[in-house]
Amino acid sequence: MILVTGACGQIGTELVKALREKHGRDKVVATDRHFASDSLQETGPYFKLDVLDKYELENLVCSLGITQIYHLAAVLSASGENNPLATWNLNMESLLNVLEIARQEKLDKVFWPSSIAVFGPSSPRINCPQHTVTEPTTVYGISKNAGEHWCMYYFEKFGLDVRSLRYPGLISYSAKAGGGTTDYAVDIFHQAVAQGEYVCFLREDTLLPMLYMPDAIRATLELMDAPAEQITVRTSYNLAGLSFTPAELAKAIQTELPGFKISYQPDFRQTIADSWPGSINDSEARNHWNWEPAYNLNAMTADMLKHIGPNTSEKNG
Ligand code: VAH
Predict the structure, then answer these.
(1) For this structure, is 153 an active site residue?
(2) Which residues of 201-229 are buried (b: 16+ CB within 10 A; e: fewer)?
(3) CA atoms within a 13 Å half-sphere pointing along the CA-CB vector of 212
(4) How confident is the model at residue 34 (pLDDT cuts 50, 70, 90)?
(5) Pocket residues for ligand 1 (CB within 6 Å)?
(6) pLDDT of res. 315
(7) Pairing between strand 46-48 and 261-264?
(8) Are 172 and 10 in contact (CB under 8 A)?
(9) Cα 64 to ligand 1 centre (Å)
């Protein structure tokens, strides 16, 4: 029996769907601090849950016979800077609640998302390796960096099978991204279809590592299905898909929507983006559990526009 926290978020919305398809709708319990979106409630069990309430979480785990937890609830990089201590508290206390309950109840597995936000200005900018300097400059990145070491501690000290991925910026069409620095790469599609133009909050040449959500979900399921002995990185695996700049993404959109226009008004999120690597080396994930992304920039762009807007060929007249 699987429990997902943060089920209403950008990853959670897709991961609950994929887990329910894989394991059966009643084997996956979705939870979030919000009331559920209809689709989540229609497709299986849902509970409103505050992940900071350890007692409530433990009750749910024990009463439902949970054996795995996917703990997604967190505050992201941009929102996190508005309230640093509340971000640290939610991101860390909730993870420690999950790790402690998983240890005490001897759960089979835990998944926890980290991020390329654990890297900072002193990390290699291009092809950033798995093992290198991690000096994050956001509270989100600091919490993910610390969380990775807590995950490794619970694996080494208590034998808890907790696994993690350093997601790059994730792009999806079904749930709006919320509070991230890479959100421009989601918003741009909605604006391109709705308005035919987009004002980007990052500079046109800002290279960032990204991944299309179908690839991210598949990577998560493949990581969790791999034999434990193959998972030798117990902080969090680098994961890469594609890297591009806003200008390159706009160009890809223009091949489908020729009239689309972009302009640039960098804001505070530029400083965050500039602190992150432009591309990631994920050779450990490829070698340890056969990771391989499927979507390139053009395939992702075509699929996003196919799902977000009216048929683009009609739109082009
Ligand atoms: C953010 N989408 O922008 C997240 C992600 C690498 C970035 O972790 O905060």
Answers:
(1) no
(2) bbeeebbbbbbbbbbbbbbbeebbebeee
(3) 19
(4) confident
(5) 76-77, 115-117, 140, 167-170, 180-182
(6) 44
(7) unpaired
(8) yes
(9) 32
Residues in the chain: 317
Distance 199 CA to ligand 1 centre (A): 19
Q: Look up residue 79 and give its amino acid.
A: S
Q: What angle do CA 288, 75, 101 make, to 5 degrees?
A: 65
SS3 content of the chain, % helix, strand, coil (to 5): 45, 15, 35
Q: Which pair of structure tokens corresponds to residue 24?
A: 């059966």
**Which atom of ligand 1 is nearest to 10's Cα?**
2
ipTM of the complex: 0.97
Report the interhelical angle of 54-64 vs 84-104 (nearest 10°): 30
Q: How many CA atoms lie within 13 A of 258 on its CB side?
A: 5
CB 145 within 8 A of CB 115: no
User: At 201, is the secondary structure helix, strand, or coil?
Assistant: coil
- State pLDDT tens for residues 74-126: 999 999 999 999 999 999 999 999 999 999 999 999 999 999 999 999 999 99
CA dihedral 275, 279, 283, 285 (to 10 degrees): 70
Distance 114 CA to ligand 1 centre (A): 9
How far CA 26 is from CA of 10, 52, 67, 222, in Å, comes to: 21, 25, 14, 21
Catalytic-role residue among 140, 154, 184, 198? 140
